[in-house]
Amino acid sequence: MGRFSTVFLVLLLLLVTEIGPTVGQRRICPRLSNNFSGPCFSSTNCARVCRGENFRAGGYCNGFRCFCNNPC
């Protein structure tokens, strides 16, 4: 019975550590760019405009609109 309890406890600890929050990862909340004009076809251009708007994480195109990556 002691061996079963030990194995169960180790498996439970492994499961709990996998569910917990990951250290160093922040959530990103997209915001529509204020300065990007026209349809967004290139995420590279969008990211450059977003960095000009002080969004250091850049941006991406989605549905022809430019979204900037903003930490939540």
From TrEMBL:
<dbReference type="InterPro" id="IPR003614">
    <property type="entry name" value="Knottins"/>
</dbReference>
<feature type="signal peptide">
    <location>
        <begin position="1"/>
        <end position="24"/>
    </location>
</feature>
<dbReference type="GO" id="GO:0005576">
    <property type="term" value="C:extracellular region"/>
</dbReference>
<feature type="domain" description="Knottins-like">
    <location>
        <begin position="28"/>
        <end position="72"/>
    </location>
</feature>
<keyword id="KW-1015">Disulfide bond</keyword>
<dbReference type="Pfam" id="PF00304">
    <property type="entry name" value="Gamma-thionin"/>
</dbReference>
<dbReference type="InterPro" id="IPR036574">
    <property type="entry name" value="Scorpion_toxin-like_sf"/>
</dbReference>
<dbReference type="InterPro" id="IPR008176">
    <property type="entry name" value="Defensin_plant"/>
</dbReference>
<keyword id="KW-0964">Secreted</keyword>
<keyword id="KW-0732">Signal</keyword>
<protein>
    <recommendedName>
        <fullName>Knottins-like domain-containing protein</fullName>
    </recommendedName>
</protein>
